Amino acid sequence: FEKLVRPAAPADGAGPQDGGGAVVKAVASGRPPPPARELSVEETRTLLEGMRVAIVGLAFQKALDNVRSRDWGALKKRAGIAKLLSYAWKSPLKASGFAIDAYSFPRILAAVRSHASAPGIR
C-alpha cells in the first residue's frame, strides 16, 4: 500500500492526472459502457464481506494511518484514501464480476442498493 501513497503528478500536464490514465482513457474513448452486472442477495453479501475483509487487515490500516498522518490538504488525503480503497477492493470487485473502470463504482452501488432491504445488507 505504501507504493500507492506518493505525491500527485505535476499539474503542468507532465503525466496522467488520474494516477494512471486508464479510467480517463476508457471514458474518453467514446465506447459504450459494458452491460450492468446484477447480483443476487448472496453475491451481494459475499461482495460486501470481501470489501470489509480487505480494509480491516493490518496492512491496509497501517497504510490508512500513513495517509492520515501526512500534512496534506483534505483533497489530497481524500485522493490517497480513494487510491488505497481501489487497490484493496480490486480483488473482491473482480471476483464478483465487476470490471475495474469508470463505470463500475456506480454499478456496484446500484447492485448493493437493489438489495438494501435484505437481511445482512447495509
UniProtKB/TrEMBL annotation:
It comes from the Eukaryota. Residues 1-39 are annotated as: Disordered. This is Uncharacterized protein. It comes from Alexandrium andersonii.
